[in-house]
Amino acid sequence: MKKYILILFLGLSTMLQAQQILSGTISDIQNKPLPGVSVYIPELHKGTTTNDNGEFFFSNLPKRELNIRFVLVGFGTQNKLVNLFQNEGKLQLVMEQTLFEMDEVIVSTAFSKIQSQNVMKVSHESIQSLQEKGTSTLIEGLATIPGVSQVSTGTSIGKPVIRGLSGNRILVYSQGVRIENQQFGDEHGLGLNDSGVESVEVIKGPASLLYGSDALGGVLYFNPEKFADANSIKANFSQKLFSNTLGSSTSLGLKTSTENWKYLVRGNYSTHSDYKVPNGDRVTNTRYNETDLKTAIGYSNSGFSTVFRYNYNGLDLGIPENGVEAQSTSKDTEFPRQGIDNHLLSLNSIVYIGSSKLDLDLGYIANNRREYEDSPQAILQMQLNTLNFNAKYHLPKLGAIESIIGLQGMHQTNTNAGEELLIPDAKTNDIGVFGTANYEWNSNVIQGGLRYDNRKVITEENGDIGEEGYFQPINRSFDSFNASLGYKTDLATDLILRLNLASGFRAPNLAELSSNGVHEGTYRYEVGNANLDNEQNMQTDLNIEYKNSHFEFFVNGFYNHINNYIYINATGATLDDNLVYEYIQNDAKLYGGEAGLHFHPHPLDWLHFETSFETVTGKKQNGDYLPLLPANNWNNTIRTEFKIRDWLKDAFATLSYNATFSQKNVSGFETASSGYGLVNLGFGGNVTLGKTNFRINLNGNNLFNKSYIAHLSRLKTDGIPNIGRNIVFGLNFDL
After folding, report:
1. Is residue 183 assigned to a domain?
2. Looking at the structure, do residues 91 and 216 belong to the same domain, yes or no?
3. What does the alpha-carbon distance between residue 445 and residue 208 come to, in Å, rounded to a whole number?
């Protein structure tokens, strides 16, 4: 029966669409053909490269509007919307040289517009640009984006913070589906590896309209690496070495594509010793090992496109509890330690139906988290299984109006197998419906939408009433209506203004509802509150940005009001020598923003100066400060770009100074932090030796071995500094 349904489905898709051919020629402003231009259709995961005459060719395309991306080193990235309904089957494109990045298509927003057409300001960074900064982990790289920081435990565990909000208030998407990995805990890391990831998009602010609960503070959206060009095979090997942790990260990938089918596989293994602080000591048991495997298979024709992806991520993490003890460079973790296995399966499909289309994303995540105290027997073991779906139907255009209706859902189970329980066995079910529309005229865009969500949480009773570890049964239903409205206009040539007003919500997580015991790593007895209500916020965002060929700047401001903000509060009581804390609610507000500029003077085309500043303040209704507020940060970078004959091309050298200010705005159980400044150097480029081509990267981070303690470091209470000087060397071969 399944076979006949599939045949019927494929036949229907084929009947609904006529095949279309697209070809073209790309040249520079002197009308010279440009060979080697990467031409890519993101929606179909289909790519090719221009030949020596600057020509490219696609066949078997759907007859509709498609975004085409053109990339060539020295010419930046350009995007063009091609209307195959009107038989625009032949393109003549002129690319101008630029050292600024051009518009990128933003896929994390509703209509996948290029940035200059988007009503919402979204930060977009390629993983290559983050790696060129020499960071050790993915979350370290993310923390270099203005408005993003991290709560860290050594170098192995990092949680993203967006404009002062973290944990379950930040939603993470990978492979087109939401990541669920017990993210309620500070010691629960991101669980993603940057190997096999092409770029990241950061939505700073409520995105509940598209993503539902937990997108109250923002979204991190990771885009996987592209498939190979049609009818080609590509293999890639990369190696990174880290001096401070005596660490290494090795990645090997292979991908191939035909006209319709695409295949990809990539493996990565990373291993690190305890990190070293500036006085030469190593922080005991901050070592870790990570194994990551990504594989994908895709198919596309004129009627539909589908990609199945699988990602396994395994982590072996030491938990630093005793600061600096016996010194070791071993990479074998000691007790206490964590073992985490994460399996992510996704199926992302697009079906073209006349002038409309249906996006369907299915995801399954199996997260197994184990903690070991002093033996190979896990004292804590949680299995979180999550099935989610996201269906978006793009209605036919009505003049200049584009519209989408959508349905989302999630079914999640948490089961415990260890001796200790942090949260009870539970089931969570989500359902959400939404609609959104986009209207564009001249240089103006207005976009709005409405959404309704319901989350149902059912937990099982466990333990004895009145004893530590007792969990009362909970059966709660949480509802929320949310809306967003955004406007974008060109105030003048190259000057854009965006104004957005959006609401968001977050249902209480299991720890907030049901905790009853000493929370691992915090040394405090936490008591949940089964009567907590939704967090509900309203945020206003203002963005002004200007960009021409030699100068760009941006200013972002926001004000975020949160009703029923959930936080933990000391009761004054003690239990088993631990202070007792309880979860309560209060209204809160956060405000601040980011500003930056990028100057590329003429005629010094090889020189760039970039600077950015970020600040956030958060207070409860009673005037007390919110916890985990990142300190103000000012980052400055000088970058030069050059080549040395034919053996070193697309080279760069960077000098950056990152100034972090003191943080005195702290909550009741935090302490103030001192400011500090770090100097970093970077160098890299494409090297050609005979017939061998490869890319190198050399970075010196915290070059002067400055001793500092970040305000959001979880080792701060023990007075343990962050990582000292770290020299990072990277090598990347296309085999």
Report:
1. no
2. no
3. 20
Count how many domains the chain has. 2
* Residue 10, in any domain of the structure: no
Secondary structure class of 510 (helix, strand, coil): helix
**Is 404 a member of any domain?**
yes
Q: Scan for tokens 């240089």, then name that residue.
A: 443
As a whole number, mean pLDDT of residues 266-289 equals 97
Residue 403 domain boundaries: 200-734
Residue 546 and residue 432 share a domain: yes
Three-class SS state of 139:
helix
How does pLDDT run across 324-366, given as a tens digit for each residue? 998 999 999 999 999 999 999 999 999 999 889 999 999 999 9
Residues 182 and 83: their CA atoms lie apart, in Å, by: 44
Least confident of 98-102, 154-158, 381-385, 390-394: 98-102
State pLDDT tens for residues 620-642.
999 999 999 999 999 999 999 99
The CATH number of the domain where 30 resides is what? 2.60.40.1120
For residues 641 and 649, the answer to whether their CB atoms sit within 8 Å is no
> 723 pLDDT band (50/70/90 cuts)?
very high
**How far is the C-alpha of 110 from the C-alpha of 659, rounded, in Å?**
36
Radius of gyration of the chain (CA): 26
108-128 in b/e burial notation, b at 16+ Cβ within 10 A? bbbbbbbbbbbbbbbbbbbbe
Separation of alpha carbons 592 and 607, rounded Å? 31
Whether the CB-CB separation of 100 and 200 falls below 8 Å is answered with no
Distance CA 109, CA 486 (A): 12
pLDDT for residue 15 is more than 50? no
Q: Which of 705, 711, 697 is nearest to 723 (CA)?
A: 705
CA-to-CA distance for 316 and 157, rounded, in angstroms? 11
